[in-house]
Design brief:
The complex is a heterodimer of chains A (189) and B (284). With 189 residues, chain A is an alpha+beta fold. In chain A, 29% of the residues lie in helices and 30% in strands. Chain A has a domain of 126 residues. The radius of gyration of chain A is 22 Å and the shape is globular. The N terminus of chain A is likely disordered. In chain B, the strands form four sheets. Chain B has an eight-stranded antiparallel sheet with strand order 1-2-6-7-11-14-15-16. The longest helix of chain B is centred in the N-terminal third of the chain and has 22 residues. About 2% of the residues of chain B have low confidence. The chains are: A alpha+beta (189), B alpha+beta (284). The interface between A and B is large, with 54 and 65 residues. β9 of chain A pairs parallel with β8 of chain B, so a sheet runs across the interface.
């Protein structure tokens, strides 16, 4: 099957003369640091206060009952966002593990604890197996330090990857239940 | 060196990532990305089959003869779907939703069991905000709305002065701007395996998979799922067309007619099917 449309010049480099070569690779994609996420989620805030949560075994059990999601960790990173004395909301930093995907994400909640916005901080693919990881590293072998500066640019986008974010949805449900348990339920009206 | 801004949000049931650079300040790029995500949220809100409150669900529930008021973007996508349905002699038709409902791939819909064959051609776009149903029509835009969302995100970025970037909605992506960007294909049946990178410039690239036991592509002519494993990747000027054409190509063993390719500045980049050349990879 050849390209019938020679006018597709933007595509010139797409058409390999030889069949597509498949290689085993894994990708990590970094989007935002926690500080950058704070600025994106609450741009009007001028102060963030750490308010980390430590959960007891009973609380974890209760959260699982409410959310129907297993609570893997007892520590939760939380920031309250303020503009001067006014509480604008809070940010919860969490991660979820899917079948092949580990996602670090930040959820911004309003003071009434409704979801304002979710930003993905980073995701990593994991198809298990050191072989894949080693071959991925080989991707960078031979690149000079000058190339290393462009490293992020060099990791290409992927077409055909359908990542399910079901686990993020579950994670958010678990986080909302966590706050209900720790801070007491609020009316979500 | 221009500033590069990258963000990602869980939308459309997948990870939607946006990478932009060029011209603007970091603050402007952030504002442009926010606007682009808002465009994706708007598509998600008005075109979701799963959300009973969406304009699409209201349209699906509408009785024959009823005029439904819809988001102009939904009317635009319906018009595009009708166009491709027409050009493909009915081989592309989002009106297969009742088959997906019967399979359990889509949630129940009150009108999905009505008598008569559902087709998008039974919808008429009156004006930009209203669609009239002239016969049975229950549609699922799963095969086209994601591409449209990518296009609307790109438009939002460009309107706010962003010169180049990539919008990637779970593997359906579009690259815009003066420089080319490296993209790789994920092997549809070995997710840990990707292709060597290739370069895209001002093009969209979308992939679709059909598996008897997984997400299936429904053949509107047979009103039945594709019986075999198949996968295809299509490039086109716009993501809506790249996305929609993957569905058509899946049903045609990776083949798209020359006039279709020309009309949408498209090409089949890669396909895998069980047609006459069963198990063969077809490489453009």
């Amino acid at each position: 099957m050849g390209f019938r449309n020679s006018f597709l010049l933007g595509l010139a480099a797409v058409a390999p003369a030889t069949p597509i070569v498949w290689v085993t690779q894994c990708y990590a994609q970094h989007f935002l640091s926690v500080e950058q996420a704070q600025a994106v989620l609450f741009p009007e805030a001028n102060r963030f206060e750490a308010a980390d949560i430590t959960l007891s075994a009973e609380q974890r059990e209760r959260i699982k009952e409410i959310s129907d999601v297993k609570v893997a960790r007892g520590e939760l990173k939380v920031f309250k966002a303020y503009r001067d004395a006014e509480l604008l909301g809070q940010i919860l930093i969490d991660h979820v593990i899917g079948k092949h995907l580990l996602i670090d994400y930040a959820v911004a909640l309003t003071p009434a604890r409704t979801v304002k916005q979710i930003e993905i901080l980073e995701y990593r693919e994991n198809y298990g197996g050191e072989v894949a990881r080693q071959e991925w590293r080989q991707n960078f072998v031979g690149k000079s330090s000058k190339d290393a500066l462009k490293l992020r640019k060099d990791i290409p986008n992927i077409s055909g990857a359908t990542y399910s974010t079901l686990h993020v949805t579950e994670g958010v449900r678990r986080l909302l239940a966590t706050l209900d348990v720790v801070e007491g339920a609020v009316s979500h009206g | 060196m221009d500033e590069v801004c990258r963000r990602a949000r869980p939308l459309l049931g997948t990870v939607v990532s946006i990478e932009v650079s060029g011209g603007a300040s970091s603050r402007q790029l952030t504002a442009a990305i926010d606007a682009a995500f808002e465009a994706v949220v708007r598509v998600q809100r008005c075109m979701s089959f799963h959300d009973a409150a969406s304009d699409l669900s209201a349209l699906n529930r509408a009785a024959v003869g009823e005029v439904a008021s819809v988001d102009p973007w939904l009317a635009e996508v319906v018009q595009s779907a009708k166009e491709l349905c027409d050009i493909s002699a009915g081989r592309f038709d989002p009106g297969v939703a009742p088959v997906l409902v019967r399979q359990g791939a889509l949630p129940p819909c009150a009108t999905a069991e009505e008598i008569g064959r559902s087709t998008v051609q039974n919808l008429r776009v009156y004006d930009s905000g209203s669609v009239v149903k002239i016969g049975p029509a229950v549609i699922d835009l799963g095969g086209i709305a994601k591409g449209f969302a990518v296009d609307m995100a790109v438009r939002a970025l460009q309107e706010l002065g962003v010169e180049e970037g990539i919008v990637n909605a779970g593997g359906d992506l579009r690259v815009f701007g003066p420089t080319s960007h490296a993209v790789t294909l994920r092997h549809p049946f070995s997710p840990g395996v990707v292709s060597e990178p290739f370069e895209l410039r001002n093009l969209a690239c979308c992939s679709s998979v059909s598996e008897p036991q997984g997400p299936t592509c429904i053949d509107p002519l047979l009103q039945a799922p594709l019986p075999c494993k198949a996968a295809v990747t299509v490039v086109a000027a716009e993501a809506l067309w790249a996305d929609a054409l993957t569905k058509l190509a899946l049903l045609q063993d990776g083949y798209l007619a020359p006039e279709v390719l020309e009309r949408y500045s498209a090409a089949v980049l890669w396909s895998f099917g069980a047609g006459p050349e069963a198990g063969q990879e077809l490489v453009a």
